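Worked example 2:
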Amino acid sequence: MQDENELSQFFANGFAPDDLPSMASLLRARHYLDAFITLFRGGEDEVLVRLLILREIGARADAPRWSPQDLQMHFSYLNPIKLDTVLKRLRENGLLIWDVDEQLYAMSESGRVALAALGTVVQFADGDAELGYLTSQVAAGQSLGQVSNEVLLNLLARLNELYTDFEAALESQSEFQIRAAREKLEKVWQWVEKGTDVIRTVLTDETTDPRGCIKLLNRLPWRKPECCD
């Protein structure tokens, strides 16, 4: 965990990290962010193996607790020394819990949260992962009555970025750019439509705080640009 004094060195004199709303929200979520630091620190190969092991452990819903023998048998395709190293890292950093009395491993709360976020990202790996992910997050928040203004603005911004790109392709009168824009739009149009519908629903909900969204709302791509019809 990063020391508060170290963090303050990144800020100008007179600014306390926890006085900034955006940083304060990150500090409140530090327990969960530490889980991502544990998973993603190091080389790409190390990270992929950690994610593989955590996903496999989390996927056994019928018997969520694992004995060391269970793990060794399940991950027999991995180098046993490397497996032990990863398990030790996950345990020491709080993603796995070791029950001394029962001699069993279990997923921690932060491990489950990290795994859920990872699962959503992986689900949208094909096509425009960013747009699909953002749309699903806004829709999930809306169904629970807790829409994140930050995620909503990110979705609005992404939709408008796409629309600007498509308009620029049309205005360029370049056959190459128009063809590329058409191909790209065909891949993401289902998410453009779903994202737009979700935003309409959210902004007509009386419980939603629409601050910062209205200006962007006026430019939403309600229909396909002509270059891509």
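DSSP finds eleven helices and two strands in the chain. The chain has a mean pLDDT of 82.
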